[in-house]
Amino acid sequence: GTPTMGPGGVLGAFVWCAVILVCLQPLFFHKDRIQLRYGGVTRQRVSHVINRPAVALRQHTSRSRGTRVRCSTAEADVWNNMENDGEWGEGDESEMAKLLGEDWMAKLKQAEMIEAQKKQDPQKPPTNPHIEEAYGVLGLGFTPLVPDSYAVVANSTLSRVEGYYKEILALCKDPSKSAITITRLLDEVLASLHTTLDALGVVNQLASDAESAEDIAWSLHALSNFEHTLRLDPTIAKAVEVELKSSSALSEEEKLMARRWVRDFSRSSYAMPEKKQKKARELLPQMFQLTEEYSDNIANNNRTIAMQSDIAMFLPLQHQAILRQYLGLDENAPLPRGQNLTLPANNFFAGGFLRTVPYSKLREEMYQKYESIDANTAILDKLLATRQKLAKVYGFNSYADLATDGSLFENSNKVTDFLTDISQKVLPMAKTQTKILANLKRQTEGGESLHDWDVEYYLSKAAGMMSNVDGDKVAEYFPVDVVVDGMRFVGERLFGIKFFDATLQAFDKGDLWDVTVVKLMVNDRNNQTLGYVYLDLFDRPGKMQGSMTLRARAAYNRPTQASKERKVAKAVLSTSIPPNPNENERTLLSHEQVRALFHEFGHCLHEVLSNTESYSQSGCNGQHAQTDFVEIPAVLMEKFAWDPRVLGTFATHYRTGQPPPDQMLIDLASTRKAFAAMRAQEKIAFSMLDQLYHRDWEGTKVAAVEDGDSKPAKTSAVMRQVFADHFPVKTESNPYGGSWETKWSHLSDTAYAGNYFTYVVAEVVSASIWDKLFAADPLNEQSGKKYWDAVFSPGSPEKPQEGLIQLVGENYLDPDAWVKSLS
């Protein structure tokens, strides 16, 4: 969703190359230092979590079976056999018995078992409201073999939490009847509810198909509606407020939850005067409808470009392999020559095309078709106006103020001041780097201006001239199984935890939604299970695109009468890596894909290593997780994916098993600084634009349009104005309507609207943490423990800045460490 940049050229490219490399060399690690850093560990191949190279993460299996199969390999075979003869027969029953045991029918009749639970007296819910582990996806009883199992599990969950809801309402009248506080009971109900709701959300985004989509949608709607009812019940809100003021039995975490509960209710439409209630209930559906239309238009963008097939030779090898699939060619077949070819202008192909194709006119066409969706121009204008009106109803001056409320900043004015200060420090460096690209373009193809569609191409070209790094050669040392093993190794060394491959056991329990998914169990040094990480790494039909971390279950230490019961986390790391078309070859990752995996791994660790007593404060995906805090662990983890001392402990050639040359890792690390100021300034400019979009949109004035340019839409005009002030490449009009803001998917995410600055905050804070704790010794366990205690353990605290101050001091938002790392 983030659009490409636009800067320029090579002022004596080779001279600049020499100057930059000489300047950067002292900042990186001497060859001998890498070799000796961890003694035998550095060059000792760490044992694989995933040690099935030819079937690396079984990436190919599901593709041959179609989208219906969302179960284990053996289950899929049973389905396919049944589909071949059209009937379910004794042979199929025999295979199910071999797969699941003689009691397979009982396991698949989970629905009947759940229905029996529903017959319990709702006035007397079970002592523990949590759904117990069961056969099926994520241990909750969903299974593709029982089509309506999603709705059945959702109904069972509703039965449980509705029973508790009635009990809580009774306790609101007489709290003395329970030894457990109302606040604690609410936390238990939310934990039980989200055990199912979050897991259904995972299935909806990663494994929904035509047969299950309706049931999943209904289930999500029903469970979400219940949470809405619970949180906005005035009787409960009043009781929690009384309990907060009068009860001495509340723990510190319960007090925090109670404060948040009361605050949320007081800011809801239900606590407003009737006139404001009506207005809020009118605006909220409008906002959600507009965001849905905006997202749908992005998803349904099906523009293509026509070109000569010979141009495909310029695409990266990975893109050529996918192009063969797209054209229906065998994996080793040569690409056609001298023919007309139609290429999708989608996220995947546009990325490779804009970096590698040397023809400016074709890049321009790909950029313009990919980066604009005309239908979203009017939708975005309405969406920003609706958000502004809604913020006013809720008592804020702007939607940006509403979005930043409770963040590390007090309001959007302080965010803007923060961004302006950094921009003044980074923009001069970005302009210098832009001149390098502009000169390189002038020498290569002529022309005075660097355009948006030139930037990625000349960035790639200049970076290649300034380093000895061959991206395809680098990828040979990063097979996907080796990278997963490397993440495991980093986690174990830093935090003293252990990862175990639990995939085969998960298959036996029907726990996985696709045959490519891998399940890792995470234990502490005492062998207590902290949680599970599910890796769903490969692209497939019907799966949401992009890299993300999804919570399937939160981790927390549930207090009981005797002790504390650990509720283990379940985090899902999902990416859209194209699998190797050759089923017998491992999938190789570019370093950018390695970086993205480490980023999401940081989020997973935050979920798994959270150590709270309440569900409501756990992890990084909760109701009150601060968006400018939760990105810090992910961005910090990226730094480990760049450090030669870390990469040298696991990177291994996919054929020879040999480690990469030390100089390759040094050169790779140096590429991080090549044009880093431009990349950083782009984030700053996006953040400034996001703030301006969400601050008094209707009152925002647009600067005069340049002569000769048709009058752009307001959203486009504001975007150009911001980038003229904060980015060194001019943005231009698009003949296909709109500009790249019409497909900036960030704007459709309600949680991140007005919060794009969090990525800049994460860069600033993580740079300070890295300098303080890890720069000298990146795998130091004592530093890891300090970091765990300050950042991971508190989950989503009320004041995360206290942990940051504990780590790096009062000036944790000082950008100097980050700015220094860009030069």
Shape label: globular
Strand order of the largest sheet: 3-4-5-9-6
The radius of gyration is 27 Å
Number of helices: 34
Q: Largest sheet, if any?
A: 5 strands, mixed
Cα distance, first to last residue? 27 Å
Overall SS class? alpha+beta
Tell me what portion of residues adopts beta-strand conformation.
5-15%
Low-confidence stretches: 1-88, 111-130
Helix residue percentage: 40-55%
Number of beta strands: 9
Mean pLDDT: 80
Q: How would you describe what is shown here?
A:
- It is a single chain.
- The protein is an alpha+beta fold and 823 residues long.
- 53% of the residues lie in helices and 6% in strands.
- It has 34 helices and nine strands.
- Strand 4 (518-523) and strand 5 form a beta hairpin.
- The two termini are 27 Å apart.
Q: What is the compact description of this entry?
A:
By secondary structure, the chain is α+β, with helices and mostly antiparallel strands. The protein contains 34 helices and nine strands.
